Amino acid sequence: MKKISLALIVVIALVVPLILAACQTSAGESKPATQNLSIIMGEGKIVQEINGKEELTGEFHRWEPDVLVVNKGDKVVLTVTNPRGHAHSFILPEFGVATQKLESRGGSATVEFNADKAGVFQYACATPFNEETGDCGADHQRQVGYLIVLER
């Protein structure tokens, strides 16, 4: 039963961001629009039952939302915030977008770009994991999300 509940939580965690991202689009507009979007470095917790007691056994980082949807031609104003305990940064290479290092517990930056090509583009954390300096986390390679740019 707990495995089914965990599977349901994982499915919800994957589907809800897609629905929310779809609500952020300007679908149906004939002219390009300005999309004001926000994204944060989120954190998930892994809880397992050990000896009849639920215990925290791991954590992971993820972009929230992990999918952003805009239309080709839109101007995107994206605010990136890091409320986590490690420094992170944001990079979307296909559009030449990168933030500086976002310090832990509230570092923030706003970037602007024109979504001038349609497709699916990966964004990620560009701050490599460094335990000594407190940069990023051991799960650095999995801290990705996707920008979907729709044709008008």
What is the compact description of this entry?
This protein has one helix spanning 2-23, and strands spanning 34-50, 53-64, 67-71, 75-82, 91-92, 97-98, 107-114, 119-124, 144-150. It has 152 residues and is mainly beta.
Look at the structure and give the mean pLDDT. 83
CATH class: Mainly Beta
The radius of gyration over CA amounts to: 17 Å
Secondary-structure-derived class: mainly beta
| CATH fold topology | Immunoglobulin-like
- Strand fraction: 35-45%
Strand order, sheet with most strands: 2-1-4-7
SS field, number of helical segments:
1
Distance between the termini: 45 Å
What is the number of strand segments?
9
What is the CATH architecture annotation? Answer: Sandwich
Topology order in helix (H) and strand (E) letters:
HEEEEEEEEE
What is the makeup of the main sheet?
4 strands, mixed
Layout: helices, strands, pairs:
Elements: H1 2-23, E1 34-50, E2 53-64, E3 67-71, E4 75-82, E5 91-92, E6 97-98, E7 107-114, E8 119-124, E9 144-150
Parallel strand pairs: 1-4, 3-9
Antiparallel strand pairs: 1-2, 4-7, 5-6, 8-9
Describe this structure in words.
With 152 residues, this protein is mainly beta. The chain has one helix at 2-23; strands spanning 34-50, 53-64, 67-71, 75-82, 91-92, 97-98, 107-114, 119-124, 144-150. The strands form 3 sheets. The protein has a 4-stranded mixed sheet with strand order 2-1-4-7, with no helix packed on it. A 3-stranded mixed sheet has the order 3-9-8. A two-stranded antiparallel ribbon has the order 5-6. Strand 5 (91-92) and strand 6 (97-98) form a beta hairpin. The longest helix has 22 residues, at 2-23. Mean pLDDT is 83; it is low at 4-12.
